[in-house]
Specification:
With 111 residues, this protein is α/β, with parallel strands linked by helices. Helices cover 36% and strands 14% of the residues. It contains four helices and three strands; from the N terminus they run H-E-H-E-H-E-H. Strand 1, helix 2 and strand 2 form a beta-alpha-beta unit. The protein is globular and about 40 Å long. The termini are close together.
Amino acid sequence: MIIDTGTRQSGKSTRMLDWMHSSPLGTRRVCVSVSLDQCRRLYELARDRALGLEEWQFVSFEQLLDGRATGLAGRVYLIELGFEDLELVLQRMLLRLFPFDVGRVSMSVEA
């Protein structure tokens, strides 16, 4: 697992798109983001860069969790997920599970 950190406007989204584009044969990489608006923004960026990524490869956290990521069903290749702005996705996920604010988290950066 790659953990890409950086400040705002440091190229994290571009690196995510490059990672998706460079998927191995038989694998399709899918970007999970916090909102449909963010999915659209990333898809448009990928389209402008002519990366050959398809719209179904960009899903929101809500679509994934609610089973509405219909583009992922029935695919004959391996699906690998990448999370854009993981801290925001994690925050939404935890709010659905617990009725409390999460004030701090920690994690290991080892694979």
